[in-house]
Amino acid sequence: MFLTNLFNLRKACSHDSITPDMESGYCPDCGKFIKNEWYITRCTCCGVKLKSVVIKGEVQPLHNYCSNCGGEEYSVEKLSKINFIDINFAVLQKKEIENGVKPSDSTICWQERTASQPKLLVQYL
Ligand SMILES: [Zn+2]
Ligand SMILES: [Zn+2]
Q1: Where in the chain are the domains?
Q2: Which ligand neighbours the alpha carbon of 44 most closely?
């Protein structure tokens, strides 16, 4: 429970110093490495881009139905770079990257050091 609470507290930072024109950087308010990620939604029926919003942490279209074909299905696409056309549709997610925990490294640790779990926990935190 304690860990969960701590996590929630940390999540409260909105990383305002990481502006949308940046690609990534360390947030001076919470010290986390923040990566700006842009997403758009697209109608799976006709393929037009839909104006996107984030609701409860999930990227989704602003409107329920496609304004072009009336379709309800959509797909979410991550943009590698934002441009001036997409910015009208896209939505920005600020993603926290855990310091020093690279996915490949941590996999090796888990496999090799199963006998010393406390150490692993310290590393992870
Ligand atoms: Zn922050
Ligand atoms: Zn459509």
Answers
A1: 2-97
A2: 2
* Range in 11-20, 23-32, 53-62, 111-120 the model is least confident about: 111-120
Neighbours of ion ligand 1 (CB under 5 A): 13, 15, 27, 29-30
Whether the model clears a pTM of 0.85, i.e. scores above it, the answer is no
Rg (CA), the chain: 19
Q: Considering every ligand atom shown, identify the ligand nearest to the alpha carbon of residue 95 and give its number.
A: 1
Question: What's the 28 CA to ligand 1 centre distance in angstroms?
Answer: 7
The angle formed by the CA atoms of residues 60, 77 and 40, to the nearest 5 degrees, is 50
- Among the bound ligands, name the one nearest to the CA of residue 27: 1
pLDDT digit string, tens, across residues 63-84: 999 999 999 999 999 998 889 8
